[in-house]
Amino acid sequence: MRKPFEMVLRGLSSLWLSTSLLIMLGILTWLGTLEQVDYGLYEVQKKYFESFFLVHQAGPIAIPLPGANLVLCVLAVNLLLGGMIRLRHGKSTIGVFVTHIGIAILLVSSAVKLYMSDDGYVRLNESEQANWFQSYYDWELVIARETESGERVEFLVPQEDLQRAVGPRSVTFSSPELPLDVEVAYYHDHCRPMPKGPAFDVAVPVVEGAFLKSLPRQKEAGENSAGLYATVVEGDGSRTEGILWGFGSHPWTVEVDGVTWILDLRRERYELPFTIELADFRKEEHPRMSMAKAFESDVSVIEGESSRPLTISMNEPLRDRGYVMYQSSWGPQDARPGDSLYSVFSVVRNPADQYPLYACIVIATGLLLHFLRKLTFHVRAEARMA
Amino acid sequence: MKLQRRMSLALALPVLAGLAGLAAPAAAQESNVRTAPWPEAVIEAAERLAVQDGGRVKPLYTYASFTLLRLHGKRSIKTLHDERLTPVEWLLDTLFFPAASSEYALFLVQNSEVIDAIGLSIEGKKRRDRYSFNELRPGLARLFQLANEYSALEEKDRTPVQQQVWILASNVDAFSRLITHMDFARLPIPLRGGELLTGIFDGRSSIRFVDVLANVGRLRELYEELAPGHGEEAPVGDAADFHGLSQLLSAASELTNGTESLALVPPAASREETEAWLSPSDLFLMGFQEGEIDPAHTSLLGSLDEIARNRNDPAGMRDSFETLLAAQTALAEARGELGKVGLELGYYKAKLIDRSLYAFVLAFLLTAFMWLRPKNRLLYWSTNGVVGVATLLVSVAIVVRCVIRGRPPVSTLYETVLFVTATGAMVALFVEAIGKRRIALSAAAILGTIGLFVANGYELLDKRDTMPSLVAVLDTNFWLATHVTSITLGYSAGMLAALLGSVYLLAKLVGWHAGDRAFYSSLGRMVYGVLCFGLIFSVVGTILGGIWANDSWGRFWGWDPKENGALLIVLSQLVILHGRMAGLLREHGVCMAAAFGGTIIAFSWWGVNLLGVGLHSYGFTSGIHTALWTYYTIQWGIVGLGAVAWLRERARSRAAVMSAVADVELGSTHDLHRGGTTA
Prior knowledge:
The complex is a heterodimer of chains A (386) and B (679). Chain A has 386 residues and is an alpha+beta fold. Chain A folds into 3 domains: 2-116 and 355-385, no CATH class; 119-130 and 271-349, no CATH class; 134-270, no CATH class. In chain A, 32% of the residues lie in helices and 40% in strands. In chain A, the strands form 5 sheets. In chain A, strands 4, 5, 12, 13, 14 and 15 form a 6-stranded antiparallel beta sheet that branches. A 4-stranded antiparallel beta sheet of chain A has the order 3-18-17-16, with no helix packed on it. Chain A has a 4-stranded antiparallel beta sheet with strand order 6-7-10-11, with no helix packed on it. Chain B is 67% helix and 3% strand. By secondary structure, chain B is mainly α. Among the domains of chain B are: 39-186, no CATH class; 189-309, no CATH class; 517-679. Chain B has helices at 9-29, 40-48, 60-72, 87-96, 98-101, 113-117, 133-136, 140-150, 160-181, 183-186, 195-200, 209-214, 216-226, 239-256, 280-290, 295-309, 314-334, 341-350, 352-372, 377-405, 413-435, 439-462, 477-510, 517-552, 561-582, 587-605, 625-673; strands at 50-53, 56-59, 77-78, 84-85, 107-109, 129-131, 189-190, 206-207. In chain B, α19 (352-372) packs antiparallel against α22 (439-462). Chain B is elongated and about 130 Å long. Chain B is built from 27 helices and 8 strands. Chains A and B meet through α2, α4, β14, β17 and β18 of A and α24 and α25 of B.
């Protein structure tokens, strides 16, 4: 029994496996880089770098490959067993050991980022506030009403649940707190509502003369606009059909038992532990050029009664309680001098935000220790030979 | 009355044909040609003049140099009389003798199909040739029409000919702005009007633009006095005055139209108040809007006016240039803007990069002699000295550029080449100092020569100022100093390792130092050592890049092509080190992998820029396909030849083993026959 276990352990910790995994990761990185020209970053990232298996199409030949996720997982095991536990510990390997610890920190940070972080953006006009940010890519269905005191009560359906509503197969969403059920069908990742003309037929339902035309996914994932067919089923069984489209300008409203319910398909939203208000956005250009020299936003971080003013600029984000806000864009791009501008902030909640910095310090220390030792030996060897 | 700034190039293209046509009468009226070479004093003063261009203040020398390079593909041009002009002399000709300059074969056309496309004859011309403005003039309308059509296409979607058409149109546009730039100083403005208007100019019938500028306040007052109010049709007062004033202002506006490309006038206000320098057009617009103009500005424009009038009077011209330079210097120094202009002029005049290249080429030749006479110590130390001087020159050039720009050593693609060359040569010299085997010294000479040829080639290809302003995200000296410098050091070490590995493989192939185990062992150790050095900087640089991305864009790693390129370098170097430790790669294998690694570095350094995707759009470049694929092919060829050498060596050692075994067996048989024992 011990022998097979030892063989597996030896295999998993072997340098042969490390070399193979590094080559495999290199191949995936190379393929994923070239594929971005045709398929865009988002699709390539999902296919090559966030997957466990994939099929790469090299012309007419389909080549099955392990995804970068799988390769990195095995590499982490290999690193732990071979580079840290089974490594012969001593003066000669201390640099290698330290370096491997640094790489382990880096791998942990990427796992934390992949599985435990949220990222998105918030767009603010001057004097506008927000205590949430929204996803770049993911959608959610919101069913909401306003209470008499003016508060908004929301029920949310995340994108992964909506994506189960493939074609005519509807998925019903209900809650004991809701006087209605919502049946969702024909969820599209990217579509556009179109008027139904008499000269053609469509394979999807037509609601009030319109239907959702499915479109191929865009190279830039942020340009995809999801859409779905929703049916509101009231307690008495009466049904109202509607179309929800992500890029639509107005939500759909339905009256149930005298209460107005709002149904909207919007980007998934995440709450912030504070409110952010944009006071002023400034864009500076190089003299006599249209090239941007600097962007910066004066904002206030508001918590209860207190308000803290600060400036967010390129390379100078706001860090607060695990959330980081970056100056990422502005608009409108065709604004004339004197026009009011809006500022766009990328927002990230990443518990491992600073891990790469620690990893970098540890790795650099390890490599320096190892290679300075090697250099000393090399100099001595050359001196002997001379 | 409509006084507006000129449109940007993209918008202006449809009207450029008109502009070029406008240049024709101006040029035609200008019958004077330069009768003597430009006086040294004038050239020196012109070179020291400052201009704001590309978002920064730079010497006119730099502006002229890169403008001529962009239009002509070279930094010198011949007149019709075979006089070779420097960039500043050409610019002076273009500004003050536009008719003559329009005859110079200035515009480099890479493909004669462009000339066909605009309906001109290419008879007597080569496929790649140069054309004068006057030769192109009949086809300009068609040229701008086509360029306007192609401007709707993204650059990557244009055919090579379409791209060439677009480039030619841009160049002709730039030139047409230059030949009309001094119209305000060359051409008189006829003055017609009533007493109110002519009274301002002492009853003269013809005035100059500087007169308009000097009296802009009074003209503004007169305009306000005479202009019809809202809802009124007829002008107030004398209609002749109003119409004369309108014509005068239109003429002044027309004469300064297009002068925005050359901003020679520092504002009177501080840099904090306004950064942008002024052109004659700006001065006129500003003066008329504000009703006054700074006397220093009028004086500066007056000097330009005098230069234009004295263009064939060397003494007058020299005095006017000195006055102009003094006026500009006073204004710019008050704003603290001339600090780096002299240094930049000195940098270009010293030709540090060219001199370094010559030294590296000399070192390369000395290297060849050194290998022919390996025991000659003088030759060895001379080569060391020349490589050292060459490395020092390029290093000084990098330091001076840092001072001029106020930036760390690397912030553009051009600077990566200089930095890789300098640091690669330094590392090679360090390795040579350890082993003194002449190999690293030779590698330094080769790397330096190739590196600086590439730098010059890139400059000629890109044809733009190599010290440009940076986009907002790059405006951080901390990350430029740490991430970019580390990554570039990684490139440098990787390229040196690839070169040393290639030397190892080719040496094995041709049987150089055959049987000298110590030679190959030392070379193999050099490759390994340089790879280790490179790995430190590649790993640290890549992670620092992620940390920078985290600070700028909110994510450590985004699988962007440039990031992936950096990762590929790290992975390739890790593969070599792990493969070596695993016994999968020995000395020969490490050298083959290092030689192959050169292509991975080239892909990351230049190749991903050609993909045209990703966030690192400030690093995009084009036109380097051929050079890149040439390098890939050479390196892959060397790796292939290395494989052949390895197979041959293996076959030889097998044969040797078989022969030894056969000898042993034969010996045994012989012993048996001799009747010996088998023990």
